[in-house]
Specification:
The chain is mainly α. It has 13 helices and four strands.
Length: about 350
């Protein structure tokens, strides 16, 4: 296990966490749209809230997949082949979400259908990402070649992975509610409805997080790296603090709608960090066969060195893009802003 292998384990975790933070509120907003937006104008505001940024946010998912392929090819092969049907559903969701966003304002006759596809396209990835992470942590059966030997799709659904999926979904919903609350006109009924959801969604996140943590510690009992025990407890405590911040500062009448959103995003980031710290040095845990780890899956040091150099050039450019796009489209949305959506 080389230093570059450990570095790329951490970098891929950061890329996944970045995706969960940035696209999490996109997906959550899409799922909440039919429930918080009661008319076409309010639905247009929700679409406008994510319209300028959603495609750039998905870059983090594509980059994470590409980095996994280049840095840990066996882990990429196992997860993408074993979770093939689930990945197809995720891609289907992302595609129909993109199409619905682009076509909704240009095809009003099919408006209700595009709204339904916007909801479905947001729900599928939000739920399945958590299920996938639950499977990687809980472990899957592998043969001698590292291929998944379980039942496709249905074999990936267990009580634990389903709760992980619900935890991921609830976090995305919390992010979405916080995002809509800080982007919608204030005062407005749309903003009030979104703000009202912050407290109950934070409570649901807390309950599901406790359930996942309890199962992971008592039932799954993954052999974790002892050197990272302090790090795991710190991340656990920070997640609880972030949830409390949302509960305390997420009241409907709160004058600060940005702080609950930052706290909700921190929950998503810290949860991925806690997952990575719990998995290290495993990439895919095997319930049968040999687990895929940094040591037996990392590419050559030469390949990882070139990847590091490219990342040092490309990552700052991506961050600069995000700073510019979020600065340009900062502030609350007016009904006039949403006319083209």
């Amino acid at each position: 296990m080389t230093a570059l292998g450990i570095l790329w384990f951490a970098l891929i975790a950061i890329l996944i966490a970045g995706y969960f933070v940035l696209d999490g509120f996109d997906l959550g907003s899409g799922i909440l749209s039919p429930f918080v937006a009661k008319n076409d104008k309010e639905k247009a505001i929700v679409r406008r809230a994510i319209g300028p940024v959603w495609d750039g946010n998905e870059v983090w998912l594509l980059t994470a997949g590409g980095a996994l392929f280049a840095a840990f090819a066996p882990a990429y092969a196992t997860t993408f082949s074993g979770f093939y049907l689930a990945i197809i559903l995720v891609l289907f969701g992302l595609i129909v979400r993109a199409v619905s966003l682009e076509y909704r304002s240009h095809d009003p006759k099919w408006g209700k259908i595009w709204d339904v596809l916007f909801f479905i396209g947001s729900l599928l990835p939000a739920l399945l990402f958590g299920v996938a992470i639950g499977n990687i942590y809980q472990g899957i059966p592998l043969d001698a070649n590292g291929d998944y030997t379980g039942v496709p799709l249905l074999g990936l659904i267990t009580p634990f992975t389903l709760v992980c999926g619900l935890l991921g979904l609830s976090i995305f919903l919390l992010q979405g509610a916080c995002w809509i609350a800080q982007k919608a006109p204030k005062p407005s009924d749309l903003q009030a409805r979104a703000a009202k959801l912050r407290l109950p969604l934070a409570a649901v996140v807390l309950v599901l997080f406790a359930a996942v943590t309890g199962h992971a510690l008592v039932v799954t009992q993954l052999d974790m790296e002892p050197a990272l025990e302090v790090v795991r407890w710190i991340l656990f405590a920070l997640i609880l603090v972030a949830i409390v911040v949302v509960i305390v500062k997420g009241k409907v009448q709160s004058s600060n709608d940005l702080l609950p959103f930052i706290a909700a995003s921190a929950i998503a980031f810290l949860l991925v960090a806690l997952f990575a710290a719990s998995m290290f040095p495993n990439l895919v845990v095997a319930t049968a066969g040999e687990s895929i780890t940094i040591a037996n899956a990392a590419s050559s040091d030469l390949a990882l060195t070139w990847m590091t150099i490219i990342t040092c050039i490309g990552l700052p450019l991506v961050l600069i893009y995000h700073v510019i796009i979020y600065r340009v489209f900062r502030g609350r949305i007016t009904p006039e802003d949403a006319e083209t959506y």
